[in-house]
Amino acid sequence: MRYVSNLPRLSAIKHFFGGGADDDSTSQSSRGQRRLRRITLTAFASMGFRGAMFLSGIIYIPLTVHYLGPERFGLWVAMTSVVTLLTFADCGLGYGLMNHIAYATGTGEKDSIRKAISSTFFVLCGIALVGCLVLGIAYPFVPWQEAFRASSPNEASEAALAVTVMAASFLLTLPFTTVQRVQSAHQEGFETQVWEIAGVLLSLFGLLAAIRARAGLPVLAIVFSSGPLLAVVLNFLVYFFVRRPSESPAFKLLDLHMARKIIHEGGYFFALQISGALLFSIDSLVILHYFGQAELGKYNLTAKLFQTTPVLVAVWFAPLWPAYAEAIARRDFDWVRRTLLRSTMVASLGCAVVSCGAGLWARPIIRVWTGVDVGPSLWLLTGLAVFSVILVSATAIATYLNGSNFIKGQVKILTAATVLSLVFKILLSKHWNISGAIWGTNLAYLLVVFPAYFVVVPRLLREHGAALQNRASPISLFRLFLKHSSAAFRRRVE
Questions:
Q1: Is 477 left (phi over 0), alpha (psi -120 to 50) or beta?
Q2: Is 12 a member of any domain?
């Protein structure tokens, strides 16, 4: 009888973790609550993953430095940095698949989901195969000793083998990452994060075992990269053959038309990734060119203080993207509008408070943290604080635009902003100081990105059937946010 009495509790737990995710019969209110539950779960799981990464680094980095020595540890850092360049290897196909599944789930066109998954999986298999062939062909011709500035041919050979192992492991992982995009599309990203935590732990234990066995650099690379590979493959197998066998990829379901469509959409996501990466990575090059390594170090140390809030906010915005897409497909426009307004305003205001605190306490924090008195200027601190708020606000809006599949337009906006920011960065750095780099980005956002968003977002809201037919201006959006917020506050008080 005790087990029978626990059944309602178990049912409630299952419902909390997303039971009935694809039930079309539920009300808009219930679906909205379920989306927010899943977004929260994914955000907390993602913070757990980042915490695991942080703790793993605290444990293995000192041990690796002690085991390899400062020079070979620098080689290890260089190797892992090279592999991070492969993060764009899926060419945006995963994001294209995610949007397709989210919209198909919302519209009830579930027959196309398995075709899309199969098409994306086998296209990524082709990309991985081509990547491995290119890697094998290029290996003998790469000047490894010069590339890593190794002190001896043996050290260069060891580094070359380790990099090849890491790159090959990443390419082998690529097709199996399909499961992560499918889980995100179904708003089950918390499952992805749990498996990624397992991958971090496997890498950590493998690395510690290899160090204890006095293994060489290639073996360290193998055990370090095999953890995430094993976790992704196990996630793939469990999800598609136990959790959702009806969506498992099959070669007979490979649809060339569907593959072309996803490749086309993925191309825009890839361009968007490249534009964003360029916009945020130019600062270091400009400062290094005009001011040298010392000033670049000062800039990077100060900038790190203002990166925490945007990173934490991005943890919450990532699962919000597919939730927007599914809600738009279901025509739950009220939920979309309310969530957009609240997430943008709350995140922006919260970031503003944290950034002001970081600006006021930056100098003593850096002194305690590093033991060095950097002494950042007021203009640099203000510019970084303003940029943090701008970045959080823009990310909130871009998340909605991604879910609305407004990708081509974003590519145009970010490309124009990147070009303009480069011009501003060069001019301000040349005739001012290192704070000119960040203020160049701020000016580009204020002159290009936000004006474009203020035109595009109200238009999309009207097109989506929102009840703001003639009132979707920035002022009316702000008033609507205050109205919903005050109503929610009164309900809580009552």
A1: alpha
A2: no
What gap in Å lies between CA 231 and CA 481, rounded to an integer? Answer: 42
Same domain, 238 and 318: no
User: Using the 8-state DSSP alphabet, how is residue 241 labeled?
Assistant: I
Q: Among 208, 229, 254, where does a domain finish?
A: 254
**Is residue 262 included in any domain, yes or no?**
no
Residue type, 217: L
- Residue 306 sits in the same domain as residue 190: no
In a domain, 52, yes or no: yes
Write out pLDDT tens, residues 383-442.
Answer: 888 999 999 999 999 999 988 888 888 888 988 988 898 899 888 888 888 888 889 889
Q: Do 355 and 389 form a contact (C-beta atoms < 8 A)?
A: yes
Q: Which two tokens stand for residue 437?
A: 């780099």
CA dist., res. 159 & res. 146, Å (int): 11
Q: What is the pLDDT of residues 294-311, one digit of tens each?
A: 677 677 777 877 877 787
H helical segments located in 85-238: 93-107, 111-138, 144-148, 153-173, 178-185, 189-212, 217-238
Taking alpha carbons only, the member of 317, 335, 329 closest to residue 103 is 329
Report the number of secondary-structure helices (H) and strands (E) in the chain: 19, 0
Alpha-carbon span 117 to 97, nearest angstrom: 7
Rounded Cα distance, 196 and 50, in Å:
10
- Asked if residue 248 and residue 284 are part of one domain, the reply reads no
Is the confidence at residue 450, as pLDDT, over 80? Answer: yes
Residue 92 falls in which region: left (phi positive, over 0), alpha (psi -120 to 50) or beta: left
Q: Are residues 463 and 391 located together in one domain of the fold?
A: yes
Same domain membership, residue 451 and residue 368: yes
Domain assignment present for residue 261? The answer is no
Q: What is the pLDDT of residues 307-348, one digit of tens each?
A: 777 877 888 888 888 888 888 888 888 888 888 988 889 888
- Rounded CA-CA distance 300/380 in Å is 11
Task: Evaluate whether 444 touches 417 at the Cβ level (below 8 Å).
Answer: yes
Give the contacts of 6 (CB within 8 A, at least 6 positions apart): none
**Do 242 and 293 belong together in one domain?**
no
pTM score, two decimals? 0.74
H or E segment at 365? Answer: helix 333-370
Longest dimension (CA), the chain: 80
Cα→Cα distances 412→191, 269, 275, 408, 425, Å: 34, 12, 9, 7, 20
Q: Of 192, 222, 254, at which residue does a domain stop?
A: 254
State the residue range of the domain holding 172.
Answer: 29-254
Q: Are residues 147 and 276 in the same domain?
A: no
What length is written for the chain?
A: 494
